[in-house]
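Supplementary notes for students who missed Thursday's class. We covered one full example, reproduced here. Read the sequence, then the structure, then the short commentary at the end.
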Amino acid sequence: MSVSKAEASEYHSKDFNWETLRQEIENDPSLNYHLLPFNSPQPEEQHSNDSIKAWQNFHVQHSSGKFFKERRYLLKEFPELVSCADGSKVLEVGCGNGSTALPILRGNEKIILYACDCSNETLERAKEFIAASNVASVEHRLHPFYCDFATTGFPKFLACDYCREMFSCKDQNCLSDVGEKRTHETDSLSMEERSCCVGGVDFVTLIFTLSAVPLQTMPTAIRECFSVLKPGGLLLFRDYGLYDMTMLRFESDQRVGFREYMRSDGTRSYFFCLDTARNLFISAGFIESVNRRNGESMRRVWVHGKFQKP
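Structure (token representation):
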């Protein structure tokens, strides 16, 4: 469902009502521990370092790629990835084994995709996984690289200091046309002609990635996404929503923050409510374009949104 920038966002579902689910959970004494305040004793740096190591170990254990399924729903949920201009650039953050990158490359043969992850092992698996899929010209359109965006930020080859300054000034030569087809021949003064970097990206995808970042680090991580996105570009977001069945399976001793949990392998997961997701992105400078959808069976709840850089 699309909403205008001025409208309030609502929860929607195919097979259950989210408000009914909320009332059921908040009135269940056995689940009360999910609602309690939480003061985390660990400093932010320790949170980040532990989280990185845990996810690196996770990817080593699941290096076969069978743990992740190709996200075929992606182009239906984010049709801009198909209708965008030829040569549009996408930054896929937390690419894992390529389950998000593959449908993007398959669905739009003119798109260029930069994919990063905090695990070199999983980047190798992603390259193998995508190469084996026989996607057209993938060797020229896929550019994987190592990066822990939440702590070190994105490399300057995505957007140099000059480009980032031009983005902040909304220079007409660096605007993104995410909603219409065009060719680069019409952009004689395009920022992508700069030899020092690729001139920023038209899309950033955060698909079940932000929830793995410690809550204290999320504002910094989102601002970093904002900094490499061209004015007019879109950040496409999908992640775990409040009261998803996965959240309710965590025991009380697995809580490491308010709505934040740690699995036995040390990986984290945060569960977003609409207000938290909206405030995080708007505080970083985005404007809300479209927000959330939840559904499927078994009371799965996801937060789904599009946030545009002015």
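Commentary. The domain at 147-167+195-309 is CATH 3.40.50.150 (Rossmann fold). The chain has a mean pLDDT of 82. If anything here is unclear, bring it to office hours.
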